[in-house]
Write a structure and sequence with these properties.
By secondary structure, chain A is mainly alpha-helical. Chain A contains 16 helices and no strands. The longest helix of chain A has 37 residues. The chains are: A mainly alpha, B mainly alpha.
Chain lengths: 400, 211
């Protein structure tokens, strides 16, 4: 890191007054503040704060961790489009690869722009009214929203839902850092309950029509359904249905919300978040472990339905489970804050997500509701943990 | 006849600065339940207004003869009688709306605004003031219901009083882009809307109700 920093500073000389790249200095400055500000670090000896990381740096790390999922999501949107319109019948060529990516880019970019424009717009207005600085809180939220909605969600709905979530889930509670619920998930929940026909079903996860008029009017191939694997499971009459294999789930080339499908991309992000200490590995591990145990129990003792029989490791790899575990359940504001509380909080989410998936056929995916429920319980969990600790120490004091 | 300041206050206060829903946070449950459409909300508002006004007058006339220890029971009997009359009238002349309001019509008996006004005002004031106080509180309650129901029906079903307002051709099903907001049909959204009205009201009156 030290070496990289030296290189970076040397590189930065180009941007100073009279340097070669003077005109681009604002770019350098932006990245410099994202990555290295505040640059004060601890002295080598004595008790000290180890790192001057602030919320801006934390936020930008999460955004970086989300980039693989976004890039893959874009590619998958295009890939599913080509697949559905029969353009991949001859196999994947280099030209088709780039076509898929370009198509996905065109389809996803408007979602990102709308989410940022609406969310940041509201943040600016509120900051102006409250005479505060604009908080960085929306950086991550605005980036996650496009990743957790189906690609065919109309843009104005995303705008309305984002506005609702930012105002009623965040600003009324006091703004960034005070929200009880994850703002991106509230956006999705609003969409889910307000416009259910655009959030679930077989026609929302794959774009068969064109994007901005490009590549539209293609005939859909015979036998195309557009259902997500979990959607197929929820409606299947065949209790032994297996919509996809292990490697399909890892590679993520199946219909789903934009950023949730590819396990590799999410694991990359998870690695970055855990290494930098931004997200808690305890929460993640607890969710995964509990969900696995719950799914195993359903495998063995559950009802004779396709979802209950879905192998436990596939439950973990399907749908929004991993995306939610890595990027949303670990949100430092809305998750439990005590170390012991994180285990309980994670267990609650892991248990609920499988229960919702298996026992409620109306909700093929339970991650959103499970995390929101976890958010609601997080303060209570923290309170209990803190009380328990106080009682323990009181007893110890009394014994002395 | 010039009205005294107190008499005016009895009628005008509940409309804004001392509004039963916005300031005293009373009668919220029925405000959430009957505001999916404008028509039941209007009927509910009018019914409550009539019942509060009349029961206020009746109790005010009887106030010196009611024994203190059983006053709640007496008040309840008066209110229950009026509610029964109103609900029978509605069933006779507006059956559909009465069915839509279902239990909430009968539950006007338990509406906090009623008991609140009887206890706080009618028991200690003359009949004319009580009538105005009842009307004021009734209208204060009714206009909140109407505003909430207006927003919920317009955005939740695209209609007002049952008439289609948002053009049919806008809907996705007919090749347009628009879709009704299902959240508006849920009680949760009514709560949020009432919250928004309270928010706006506080911002405008800026704590005047406490002065």
């Amino acid at each position: 890191m030290e070496k990289f920093y030296q290189l970076w500073k040397k590189f930065g000389k180009n941007f100073e007054q009279g340097g070669k790249l003077e005109k681009l200095s604002s770019f350098y400055d932006a990245f410099d503040t994202f990555l290295f500000t505040p640059s004060t670090t601890a002295k080598r000896y004595g008790a000290q704060i180890h790192d001057g990381s602030d919320s801006k740096r934390t936020m930008i790390l999460v955004v970086m961790a989300l980039v693989p999922a976004l890039l893959f999501g874009m590619y998958n949107v295009g890939y599913q489009h080509l697949l559905a319109t029969g353009q991949l019948a001859e196999g994947l060529t280099c030209a088709l690869f780039w076509k898929a990516f370009a198509f996905g880019l065109l389809a996803v970019l408007p979602l990102i722009i709308v989410s940022y424009a609406v969310g940041l717009g509201i943040e600016f207005v509120v900051a102006q009214i409250k005479k505060e600085e604009v908080a960085e809180g929306f950086l991550v939220t605005g980036f996650i929203i496009p990743l957790i909605v189906p690609i065919n969600t109309p843009l104005w709905m995303v705008g309305v839902a984002t506005a609702f979530a930012v105002i009623f889930a965040k600003e009324v509670f006091g703004g960034t850092g005070y929200n009880v619920f994850n703002v991106a998930l509230i956006t999705r929940a609003f969409l889910f309950f307000a416009y259910p026909s655009h959030m679930t079903g077989d026609s929302v996860f794959v774009r068969t029509s064109g994007t901005w008029g490009w590549d539209g009017g293609q005939a859909v191939v015979d036998g195309f359904s557009g259902a997500t694997p979990l959607g197929q499971l929820a409606t299947s009459a065949d209790a032994s249905l297996l919509p996809m294999g292990f490697w399909d789930a890892m590679n993520g080339l199946y219909p789903g919300s934009v950023g949730e499908t590819c396990v590799w991309a999410i694991l990359l992000g998870a690695g970055l978040l855990i290494c930098t200490g931004v997200a808690s590995w305890k929460t993640m591990l607890s969710i995964v472990a509990t969900a696995a145990v719950t799914a195993v129990l359903f495998n063995r003792f559950g009802p004779e339905t396709a979802v209950a029989n879905y192998p436990w490791y596939m439950q973990l790899l399907s749908g929004g489970f991993l995306f939610g575990t890595v990027f949303m359940a670990t949100d430092p504001v809305t998750s439990a804050r005590t170390e012991c509380g994180k285990w309980i909080y994670g267990a609650l989410i892991g248990f609920m997500v499988i229960v919702i998936r298996v026992l409620n056929p109306g909700y093929p995916e339970g991650m959103m509701l499970a995390i929101l429920l976890g958010n609601a319980f997080a303060p209570l969990i923290d309170w209990c943990v803190v009380r328990a600790n106080i009682n323990k120490r009181m007893k110890r004091e009394a014994a002395l | 006849m010039a009205l005294s300041k107190k008499t005016k206050e009895a009628f005008l206060g509940p409309l804004s600065l001392n509004n039963p829903v916005l300031v005293q946070i009373l009668g919220i449950c029925s405000a959430l339940a009957v505001t999916v459409q404008l028509k039941p909300a209007l009927v509910m508002g009018i019914s409550v207004t009539i019942i509060v006004a009349l029961s206020n007058v009746v109790i005010s006339l009887m106030r010196n003869t009611i024994p203190m220890r059983i006053r709640i029971i007496v008040q309840l009997v008066v209110v229950a009688a009026l509610v029964t009359i109103v609900s029978e009238v509605l069933k006779a002349f507006a059956y559909d709306v009465a069915m839509q309001l279902s239990v909430y019509l009968g539950l006007i008996i338990t509406n906090c605004i009623l008991m609140g006004r009887l206890e706080a005002f009618a028991m200690t004031n003359n009949a004319f003031d009580s009538l105005l106080d009842g009307l004021g509180n009734g209208f204060g309650y009714a206009w909140i219901l109407v505003v909430v129901a207006f927003v919920r029906e317009l955005f939740g079903s695209g209609k007002l009083l049952g008439y289609q307002i948002i053009p049919d051709s806008w809907y996705v099903a007919n090749g347009g882009f628009y879709e009704n907001c299902g959240m508006m049909l849920m009680p949760a959204m009514a709560l949020i809307l009432v919250g928004c009205i309270i928010w706006a009201h506080r911002a405008i009156t800026d704590g005047k109700e406490n002065k």
